[in-house]
Specification:
The protein is α+β, with helices and mostly antiparallel strands. The protein is built from twelve helices and 13 strands. The chain starts with a strand and ends with a strand.
Length: 387
């Protein structure tokens, strides 16, 4: 007869966070699509100069309170979850949101309920009115977040999540309700693309006044800060948006440097003023996905594979795209998409993932379809009232 489920709290800085970080490797073992972040991204690495997200050194914790929980039965870890209060998010939205994240669980409603109870009680005790998730720690637009509810047959691209289909049912059975869906679209780069897209882009070029340039890797931090500046302006009105800080931009620049292809990152200027950008990345997950071989999937093995294959990655993710207010409906999106696809066709890229797209962002959804893309994944964010 199995024993009761017991939940253990693991605060920030606790040594058991290593077990917390490694648990999904056992729960997802053998899944050909599951692709986790590097252990260094979570636990930190002096060698790589990375402040892990689960460590007090990470800048996230300067404006957030967090804790973590592991559920056990008869001593065996069966699931995990984090609870967080992102004060910067709450100040931005003038709300009282708590978040649950890092959710991983066996297919057992009792275990899921125990974990979600712990996250609910922790956030409610601190005066929060809504529990939202899943995410990593929280649900700002630039974070890894959401539970996959459609598209389980393909691996995720960089910074996207993958989980078994039953996660949705565990969360909904607890009482969470849908807050928002995000979609991913996919387009075959090697194909000729939309004739209409090419025609519109040509017309925009003929009008003049708009210039396009590629990223300059010799000043990568400045280029990433420009991407973030345009992104923060362009996405300000979107659901779940939280401005990216300069410090977060610098961390992003450092993480992108090994894989960035400057031809996939382009800026549009209108009469010399930066108006829009498109940021597309070769997908490191293509190399980092666990292979489940006898020699293991340590960070060293996965990074060695990435550096060996990084110039032959066939898949890219369109991760950042934005047009500043005042420059929209000028055809800049068609011009950026057309140039990015044309460049991709001269290289080895075969497929482009466009994500994460809000389900009600009609402008970007129409633009994705306009470039010949089709929807192939959906993630969901949930809310639970606490009052």
């Amino acid at each position: 007869m199995p024993g009761p489920v017991r939940v253990e709290e693991v605060p920030l800085g606790d040594r058991k966070l290593r077990e917390f970080a490694r648990l999904p490797w056992r729960l997802n073992r053998g899944d050909p699509c599951w692709t986790p972040p590097l252990n260094a991204d979570l636990l930190g690495s002096r060698l790589l100069g990375v402040p892990g997200l689960l460590t007090p050194a990470h800048p996230y914790h300067r404006s957030a309170d967090v804790t973590h929980f592991i559920a056990r039965r008869d001593g065996k870890a069966l699931g995990r979850v984090s609870a967080a209060i992102n004060h910067r998010f709450n100040e931005h939205y003038r709300g009282r949101y708590g978040f649950f994240g890092f959710f991983e669980c066996v297919d057992d409603q009792e275990v899921a309920n125990a974990l979600l109870d712990a996250a609910r009680d922790w956030t409610a005790a601190r005066g929060m009115e809504v529990l939202r998730g899943p995410g990593e720690y929280s649900n700002a637009t630039h974070e890894r977040q959401g539970v996959l509810i459609d598209g389980f047959d393909t691996p995720p691209t960089v910074e996207l999540t993958h989980n078994p289909p039953y996660y949705r049912h565990l969360i909904e059975a607890y009482g969470f309700v849908k807050a928002k869906d995000y979609h991913a679209y996919r387009v075959a780069v090697a194909e000729t693309g939309s004739e209409r897209l090419t025609r519109v882009a040509a017309a925009v070029r003929e009008r003049g006044g708009i210039t396009i340039r590629c990223a300059d890797l010799s000043r990568l931090r400045e280029e990433v800060r420009l991407i973030v500046s345009i992104y923060n302006d362009a996405w300000a009105a979107n659901w779940g948006f939280l401005p990216i800080t300069d410090e977060e931009a610098d961390l992003l620049a450092d993480s992108l440097k090994p894989i960035l292809d400057p031809g996939l990152v382009r800026f549009a200027y209108v009469h010399g003023e930066p108006a829009a950008m498109i940021g597309t990345l070769p997908d490191p997950n293509w190399a980092l996905r666990p292979r489940w071989r006898w020699y293991g999937d340590s960070d060293a093995v996965r990074l060695a594979r990435l550096f060996a294959l990084r110039r032959r990655i066939p898949r890219v993710r369109l991760m950042f795209f934005g047009i500043r207010p005042g420059f929209r409906r000028m055809g800049i999106d068609a011009l950026l998409f057309d140039e990015m696809l044309a460049y991709g066709r001269t290289k080895h890229y075969r497929e482009c993932d466009i994500s994460m797209l809000l389900e009600d962002n009609d402008l970007i959804l129409r633009a994705s379809k306009f470039m010949g893309a089709n929807r192939y994944k959906t993630w969901r964010i949930y809310d639970l009232p606490l009052m």
